[in-house]
Design brief:
Elements lengths: L6 E4 L2 E7 L1 H9 L4 H10 L10 E7 L4 E10 L2 E10 L11 E5 L1
Parallel strand pairs: 2-5, 3-6
Antiparallel strand pairs: 1-2, 3-4, 4-5
């Protein structure tokens, strides 16, 4: 099984990544390349502006993937919890979920 990265850089800011069991399972089942997930997250610089405990869909129409994350902030650190990944453009069911489009 591949080793998933524990951090990424978004706009030169290091963010810690937590991968939920569900996101790992989806990644494997749907054969979504981890590089595509990381690239999508790294392009979503708006994540840096979200408040603690914010859910957000990051949608990448070029790669045809969507990533649902939960943002945790603690002081000056940001933890991005990867909840799930899907191999299509997600249509959120919760009105509160933020959507970030990346290309």
């Amino acid at each position: 099984m591949e080793v998933l990265p524990s951090s990424i850089l978004i706009d030169n800011f290091k963010c810690k990544l937590n991968w939920s069991n569900h996101s790992i399972l989806r990644n494997i089942q749907r054969q979504i390349a981890t590089e595509g997930i990381i690239e999508t997250l790294e392009k979503a610089d708006e994540l840096l502006d979200l408040k603690n405990n914010s859910f957000c869909w990051i949608r990448n129409s070029q790669k045809k993937i969507s990533v649902l994350v939960l943002i945790h902030t603690k002081g000056k650190s940001i933890i991005i919890e990867v909840i799930t990944v899907i191999n299509k453009i997600a249509i959120p069911t919760c009105e509160k979920d933020k959507i970030i489009e990346v290309a």
